[in-house]
């Protein structure tokens, strides 16, 4: 919904009625992820997309109908590859689309949620999209995590207590609400929307009720350390990919807003101190990506000591030549890092694209981040088999670089042997 929210809010504030279709589940090679929405405005205008063009016409007609009747509909689109053109879903995937009426009467909460999103506050909106009792379809609950408490254990040490939540609305029973609240927090932590299945009264091993959770998490963070020309290009690409970008460098003459106009913030601080402080404040999570572009031991070794020990951080990449990489690994070993911790580092940073310019290098780094997030190989699709779109992994997986590289080589050898 986030990408269509400005238009939706404009019509909502004007008191208009809108039809909205939202992807709530996907199977096989569906082109759009859960949470993608399409609007049909009061003047017939279509905004957004649920399938990249495959079934937009069918969803458009259904959204117009639901906007008039007010009765929500859960509709499945998609058939086998052999007959895909009959429905229009040419990729052969399957989409479940929940279509509902949006107005001030049906969504009185929309303005408040939009304001929370504008402030960057996380919120999960859970909606019953399927239930044996039609009266429960469309019920909603709102889950908001509250900041955990931090207890001081001594200089430089702290401990975070369990996450507290506040909820409003309800899905029909206390049992359902309790089950959905816990699962919605998990989706919110990963930043991914999805559909959950339960028994009619929230039984975890049952079926019959499906609840779609919009997980509106703040933007994931990209931390760019080193105020160099490559950092400006990386910040530009990071902003384009939807990251909240921070550039950090200890040198005030280089770390300026003028040099990094695409960054959300520019910080003058020693990189390792800044990262440690952000971690202690709870602003680092598994969606966070860290790019170390300083390639200067006095900056990057203390920084990497902190970064490679962060629990669950999404990606840590460090720039430098092969010689710099070998020297860096040696220094990190001398600093006490284990082989497993060092293996979390992507160094030299980026995929082998033959990049030379800062802009090309930024694309190389972004490609590696994307591949790590979704489990991609980084190889040409023309030379791979299987599905193009992978399942939602819910975040990065820490994979030792050497093992990943070996798997790539094994696949290349297998292809050469086959030819």
From TrEMBL:
InterPro entries: MoCofactor_Util/Proc, XdhC_CoxI, XdhC_Rossmann_dom. Residues 410-419 have a biased composition (Basic and acidic residues). Residues 222-369 form the XdhC Rossmann domain. Residues 149-174, 376-419 are annotated as: Disordered. Residues 11-78, 117-199 form the XdhC- CoxI domain. This is Xanthine dehydrogenase accessory factor. It comes from Nocardioides thalensis.
């Amino acid at each position: 919904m986030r990408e269509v929210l400005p238009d939706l809010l404009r019509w909502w504030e004007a008191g208009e009625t809108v039809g909205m279709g939202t992807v709530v589940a996907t199977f096989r090679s569906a082109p759009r992820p859960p949470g993608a929405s399409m609007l049909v405005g009061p003047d017939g205008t279509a905004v957004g997309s649920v399938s990249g063009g495959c079934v937009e016409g069918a969803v458009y007609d259904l959204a117009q109908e639901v906007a008039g009747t007010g009765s929500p509909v859960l509709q499945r689109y998609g058939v086998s590859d052999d007959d895909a053109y009959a429905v229009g879903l040419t990729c052969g995937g399957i989409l479940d689309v929940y279509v509902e009426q949006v107005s001030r009467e049906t969504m009185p909460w929309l303005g408040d949620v939009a304001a929370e999103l504008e402030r960057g506050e996380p919120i999960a909106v859970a909606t019953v999209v399927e239930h044996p009792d039609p009266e429960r379809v469309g019920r909603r609950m709102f889950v908001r995590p509250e900041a955990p408490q931090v207890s001081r254990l001594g200089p430089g040490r702290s401990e975070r207590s369990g996450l507290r939540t506040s909820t409003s609305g309800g899905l029909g029973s206390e049992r359902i609400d309790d089950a959905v609240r816990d699962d919605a927090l998990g989706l919110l932590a990963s930043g991914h929307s999805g559909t959950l299945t339960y028994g009619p009264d929230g039984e975890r091993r049952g079926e019959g009720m499906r609840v779609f959770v919009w997980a509106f998490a703040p933007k994931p963070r990209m931390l760019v350390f080193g105020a160099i020309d490559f950092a400006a290009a990386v910040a530009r690409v990071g902003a384009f990919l939807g990251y909240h970008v921070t550039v950090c460098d200890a040198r005030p003459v280089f770390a300026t807003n003028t040099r990094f106009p695409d960054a959300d913030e520019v910080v003058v601080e020693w990189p390792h101190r800044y990262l440690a402080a952000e971690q202690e404040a709870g602003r680092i999570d598994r969606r966070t990506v860290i790019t170390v572009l300083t390639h200067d031991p006095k900056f990057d070794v203390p920084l990497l000591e902190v970064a490679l020990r962060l629990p669950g951080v999404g990606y840590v990449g460090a720039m430098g030549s092969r010689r710099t990489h070998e020297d860096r690994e040696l220094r990190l070993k001398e600093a006490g890092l284990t082989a497993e911790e060092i293996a979390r580092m992507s160094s030299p940073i980026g995929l082998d694209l033959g990049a030379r310019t800062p802009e090309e290098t930024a694309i190389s780094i972004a490609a590696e981040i994307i591949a790590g997030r979704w489990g991609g190989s980084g190889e040409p699709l023309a030379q791979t088999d299987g599905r193009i779109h992978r399942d939602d992994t819910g975040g990065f997986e820490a994979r030792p670089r050497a093992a990943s590289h070996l798997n790539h080589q094994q696949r290349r050898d297998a292809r050469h042997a086959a030819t």
